[in-house]
Amino acid sequence: MKVTRIAYSARLNPGKYAALVEQARRLGRVRSEVWQRYGSILGVGSGLRDRQVRDRWLADGTHVRFGVLANAWKETVRDAMADIGANLEAAKVDVRRAISRRTNDPAERQRMYTALKADQWASDPFLARQMRKHWKRGRNRTHDQIVVRADNYNTAADGRGRLWLAVPGLEPRKMVRIPLSTTVAPAGTLRLILRRGRVEVHYQIDASAMRSSQRPCGEATVGVDKGYTEALTDSDGQPHGEQLGELLTSESDRLKERNRRRAKLRSIANDAAARGDHAKAQRIKANNLGTVKRERQAARHRARVRTEIFTAVHEVVDKAATVIAEDLTKRFTGRKKLPKNINRRLAAWTKGVTAEALKSVSERRGSAHVPVNAAYTSQTCHQCGDFGRRSGDRFHCTRCGVVWQADMNAAINILHRAGDPDIALHTPHKRVKQILQDRTDRHRTRLPVQDSSPATAGRRANHPNHSTMNNE
Ligand SMILES: [Zn+2]
To answer: Please, are residues 143 and 25 in contact by the beta-carbon 8 Å criterion?
Structure first.
């Protein structure tokens, strides 16, 4: 497994930066061309690989009009084809959900899953219709990146210990030398991203080389509930990532205050411009309404939150061989924009980071990560299964007459979901409610407890049966 590392350029000569921006702009046109031609049902329907695309372009002369070096456009074609592939895979996740809703027949489901995986969906009317529905035609939005293969660049330290990265420019044999603000040389294929006068050098390292990957995982099966105050609460009631709430609240307050100040400054600048004092308006725009400092602060905050969440997940994996969690990837498959409200935006973003951390840490340390359907897990009592009331961090069950710590109660319910015979990952919300309702009604009318009672499900979860859990 690979993890991404980023190196940043140190003080970079504006002429060099402009040349890189121009190269990235031209490569952006290469990307657009690839998306235009191969980014739709028809394009992939023809089953092309990036090598075939390159051969075609070489044959018909498409590549000539971009005005970039051969290695640069070829790597860009490969990268854009990979993006299109990822876009296609994301659509397939939705189609798999649609298949599980359409039929309960395991053989029929398997047939459709297999056809989907092998890209044989065109001949099946249901699959073809679903693919057309979920695979939105994408387009290229990347115009600020340059991909450089490992054998096309070099790094060297100067007399003062500064590291320089030399990458191809627009002219053959003329390298652009970029000073880096790190002493660790990037390796493998590089992705240069040009942002606000700075070059970000993204590259991947093998995760097994990281110290945290050597840490063994625990032995328990643990359910976790994702929160806002703490990153995670586990089914033993232990919180992890307790600084998260404070980090998010202070960031939210800071952003609101900053936006208020900026709005005020903007109106002062507009008033000045209206009076004809363009010098003043310009001064305010340049000195007070820039984006460089804002971006740095945002990056710092993102790094802190990521550390808090990853640390929390590592703590859970310290004791768990199997981590059972809500399927956090669910709403992240589309191209939906994050909400405008600051708190909701931060919450949506941290959810994505938590999903990433659960997946990445599990893979690196060899624990299993089992996503489950978390519908109503925070609204039902883990002991009797009845619906209860949540107020703040307390959960009241009137039937049991007990007050639970709300996050722990949810985490235990999540743990039980892994062995639940009736509630699968994609069981619709309404159906889950019905199942839960039926179970509590059965209790009330004192019918014999059947196999699907929460108590039995709970016992099963302690000995998870891996065949009933799939990682789709
Ligand atoms: Zn109860």
So the answer is: yes
| Residue 210: per-residue pLDDT | 77
Q: Which amino acid is at 256?
A: K
Q: Which residues of the chain have pLDDT under 50?
A: 45, 332-335, 451-472
> How many A from CA of 387 to the centre of ligand 1?
8
Whole-number Å distance, alpha carbon 383 to ligand 1 midpoint, is 5
In 3D, which of 416, 418, 417 has the Cα closest to residue 458? Answer: 416
Region of 142 on the Ramachandran plot (φ > 0 left; ψ -120 to 50 alpha; else beta): beta
Q: What is the pLDDT of residue 385?
A: 92
Q: Which of 167, 156, 213 is nearest to 193 (CA)?
A: 167
Q: How far is the CA of 386 from the centre of ligand 1 (A)?
A: 6
Type of residue at 414: I
As given in the structure block, the two tokens for residue 220 are: 């328990």
Beta-bridged to residue 277, according to DSSP, are: none
Q: Which residue(s) pair with 200 in the sheet?
A: 8, 193
**What's the gap in Å between 460 CA and the centre of ligand 1?**
19
Question: What is the residue type of 177?
Answer: R
Q: What is the pLDDT of residue 346?
A: 83
Residue 44 Cα, ligand 1 centroid: separation in angstroms?
Answer: 52
DSSP 9: B
Give me ligand 1 centre to Cα 385, in Å.
Answer: 6
d(CA 111, CA 412): 35
